[in-house]
Amino acid sequence: MQRITGGDYINYNEVVRISNDYLLSTVTELYGLEGYDIKPVHAHHGGRNVVYTCERDGSDAKVIRIAFLNDRNREDFLSELEYVRYLFAHGGNVSDIVDSLNGNLLEEIIHHNQPFFICLFKKAAGKMLAENQYRYREGAPVTEYYYNCGKVLGKLHQLSKGYTPVRRRYRFNDKYNAEYIEKRVPASLPLLKEKLLDLLSILEGLDKNRETFGMVHFDYNDGNYAIDFDNGKITVYDFDNACYCWYMFDLASLWTNGMGWIQFEPDVGKRIKFMDDYMDTALAGYRSETGIEDAMLEQLPLFIQVNLMESIIDAFEVMRNNGEEPECDEELSYRIKCLEDDIPYMGFFHAIYSCEEPFEYEKRTL
């Protein structure tokens, strides 16, 4: 929950009410959306924004994003949107931003002293893989999808290597540092804190040159892109976590995305073989657009751990934003166990993993 004024708080449901009662009429005027059918998008747990789709016969569909959390300011949002506009203008497979009628990438509406930051995107063609029951397009091998996932990511990274921002986004270590870990991770998890600090120490020794470190999506997964099932084209969106980081972070996310295709396989040897083949195909797509040194690819296990770190801290941050006491469900307990016990590859090839209850472990009491 977020403080507004005088001790009051605002949460997601309250923002939905304010949006429906007040904000949407103003947004409609700012962006010329009269006559569009505007519908809410169901939020996933931990979602940062209130989102609506806008559809009208004869017009391209659009998506409204209303941001309300107080951990980002106008400059943060503009730096994200300028990066997305750059990617789109240079051929990246991303959803473009629609300027307001005032010619702005971002609009700010103040309601009862609470700022709401508004932007409008063109809706990506197609739909998410989950909306298609995780079936790939008919008549095409699923390896086409693996290849395209890598290719699209490679293109984004190649464009990032030539990106000179007007407004610079934050760096990974601006957020992920000892102070942040101390604030977000409960005191009852001292070993986890120790392991997270160890990870940060290892990262400090890695190169940060133009070929290894730049703007990354930082949340590259099948919930953040749409697939046109007529031709297989992938369009990426949700760049609100984008930051300066090692490109290997996104590549580790790409690796973890592959686990879902084989997560119910009981034979660990088959899981290993599948993941090797999957990543070979995805990397072929990636390397068709940009280079990656073998020395950095060897850091894949490290960056899978960094992905785990991000997901664990994010889980605690979501609880905090929702005004909830921190707790560990089976999934979060599994992730913490992998980090505390130095279990590589998210435990996917380890005895901790169960194909009957994938990525779950006994609940931790905090």
Describe the structure.
It is built from eleven helices and twelve strands. The chain is globular, with a radius of gyration of 21 Å. Strands 3, 4, 5, 6, 7 and 8 form a six-stranded antiparallel sheet that branches. With 366 residues, the chain is α+β, with helices and mostly antiparallel strands. The chain has helices at residues 12-31, 74-89, 142-160, 172-175, 178-184, 190-204, 247-258, 268-287, 294-297, 300-321, 330-340, and strands spanning 2-3, 9-10, 37-40, 49-55, 62-67, 97-98, 107-111, 114-122, 213-216, 225-227, 234-236, 243-246.
Topology of this protein?
Layout (H helix, E strand, L loop, with lengths): L1 E2 L5 E2 L1 H20 L5 E4 L8 E7 L6 E6 L6 H16 L7 E2 L8 E5 L2 E9 L19 H19 L11 H4 L2 H7 L5 H15 L8 E4 L8 E3 L6 E3 L6 E4 H12 L9 H20 L6 H4 L2 H22 L8 H11 L26
Antiparallel strand pairs: 1-2, 3-4, 4-5, 5-8, 6-8, 7-8, 9-12, 10-11
Element order: H for helix, E for strand: EEHEEEHEEEHHHHEEEEHHHHH
Low-confidence stretches: 1-8
Helix/strand structural class: alpha+beta
Topology, number of strands: 12
Question: What is the helix fraction of residues, given as a range?
Answer: 40-55%
- Rg estimate, integer Å: 21 Å
Distance between the termini: 21 Å
Shape: globular
Largest sheet: 6 strands, antiparallel
Q: Give the percentage of residues in beta strands.
A: 5-15%
> Can you give the mean pLDDT?
94
**Helix count from the secondary structure assignment:** 11
